[in-house]
């Protein structure tokens, strides 16, 4: 293998991975350099260990049998301590030290959209993208309280360049250049499920995929984001994912409950439609919060069907709390997690991954799940926290995930847009406006962030009898 580093070749041979050099003689110097760089970035010992342990990391049935309903604050409930008013006041006081962290590494493949998902035009009337809505919410909450709230966007290798170009082209939707930082998450290689051998996506490239939302900790450390947060005096990160246009960015009550409880990481939940609804299950196990993925709970139920019948005294399922992927996380906790990277476990997923056959050089598109992928999840930080808090919100108002393309059973663009219209109609009605039953309405975050601001902005006796987009100039 001319021009191949002998040490790299020996390392590959040690772990039975030298097949990835099958096409080395055919590669240009640039291609050889690209492949060598990818190979040097892999921890082959870790990869071998992950493959050998496979999916048998936890006894999900035993964990589900020990799971209890998590202690929960319910947003807006007056009969709890601290009160909603106390939580809101504490959250507002803390906003000057809060950053927004937006996870936006996914592509819109399932939507039939060949771009970063954040670019998808979801506004019912405005056709505003997910990025526009979420960035304008960040801008608006800062304006409301006379602050500049910095935004950190985690991309992936597949979305980074296009995301950066899109945000720049649109002037970051009003946020200043100094307040928007993009950083790219890492990758993990896919391996053949039968042999554990690395798969090639091309003769000079490995089959790599993003390392999951849990890769955010190492990515923030690697790109200097945690250092920058410290230099700016930031103490909490409001973490959210790009697919939910109804998220209440920097929700001050949520922030307040987190801070008043002295928590290190907190999570928002909604009541699930059923235990196996495809949302992670927030539970308490041995006194610590953790999340059981719905797929893991389904596996446990196949082993012990009675697990799904576990009920609370009021008849509610133990597995009622659905994870929204919305967290408040202390920066100090993120720093501690970065110093102990091994605390976040890898999860295994079997997927269909196209690969180059090293015998023939042809690209193979498998018809069955042929590969193992490895990824981490941000929610796995919960058990490592000294204290965590759960806050329940109304899913009709706070949660409209965009997951699937038009015509699917749920989480479609049509469903998300209908829910946005419903929420905005409700805000207007609560403020005293008369809204025709046939009128579709959409409210820009720059006009109003919530029902309270609608009351401040709407004109007395307002009548809405046609489709109406309330923007900053309305």
Layout of secondary structure:
Elements: H1 6-14, H2 29-40, H3 44-53, H4 60-66, E1 72-74, H5 84-94, E2 98-103, H6 130-144, E3 151-155, H7 160-169, E4 180-184, E5 187-189, E6 191-192, E7 200-202, E8 205-206, E9 208-210, H8 216-222, H9 225-231, E10 236-241, H10 252-260, E11 265-271, E12 281-285, E13 288-292, H11 294-303, E14 321-330, H12 331-339, E15 347-351, E16 355-356, E17 363-364, E18 371-375, E19 388-392, H13 395-398, H14 413-430, E20 434-435, E21 441-443, H15 451-457, E22 463-464, E23 468-470
Parallel strand pairs: 1-19, 2-3, 2-10, 3-4, 11-19, 20-22, 21-23
Antiparallel strand pairs: 5-9, 6-18, 7-8, 10-14, 11-14, 12-13, 15-18, 16-17
Helix pairs in contact: 4-11, 5-10, 8-12, 14-15
Give the helix/strand class. Answer: alpha/beta
Note the gap between the termini. Answer: 68 Å
Overall form: globular
Give the tally of structural domains: 3
| CATH top level label of the largest domain | Alpha Beta
What is the average per-residue confidence, as pLDDT, rounded to a whole number?
Answer: 93
| Helical coverage, percent range | 25-40%
Low-confidence stretches: none
